[in-house]
């Protein structure tokens, strides 16, 4: 049986450790071959505020996610990522592209990358069902897709059902921490557009944006494409499990 191959593109710094480490751990446990990629092949690091100190205790990753992150950080795949800026870099070999989120401003390296956008503009349309190619994204990771334009000038997810970080969550985190963290929770700076609005305006119909304000896990699977999305760290484990099932199902059905 084909071993599923996963690529996790990352910025050099700033991704949410829960949204990265829990899926990585689940993919490895499922027998997937996992690769990482950063712009120049430098080993990445996740957001320290989510891992240590008072910010971790009040707002950051739970202990199991912190432990999973430290194990992931020692993994050879994480220590020696591919370079997405290399001429030989290609998404073609991968059955799954997984896009983690994070709100530190460092994640803009991935969100705004014209190189990643160009690769996804070619890859994402090939996830249209039936296909063995899949994409999953969580939180700000959805913006990598919403900001990727196809040949028609529209976002590659313009006709998809999706979720992402809800405005109410983003605003609550920003206003609740602004006195001591400033604009930390606004990736593009104070006064910038919320993730939900940024994603929704790229869709054909705002009703395609699926919103849940519950704290329990919530994942959206599109009907036309092999595309799943989540909102924030609480969704990471379920998103990984649903993604694994999707990838395994497409491969078992003999899709290419």
Automatic annotation (TrEMBL):
Keywords: Glutamine amidotransferase. Pfam families: ThiJ_like. The keyword Ligase does not apply. Coiled coil: none annotated. The keyword Manganese does not apply. This is Class I glutamine amidotransferase-like protein.
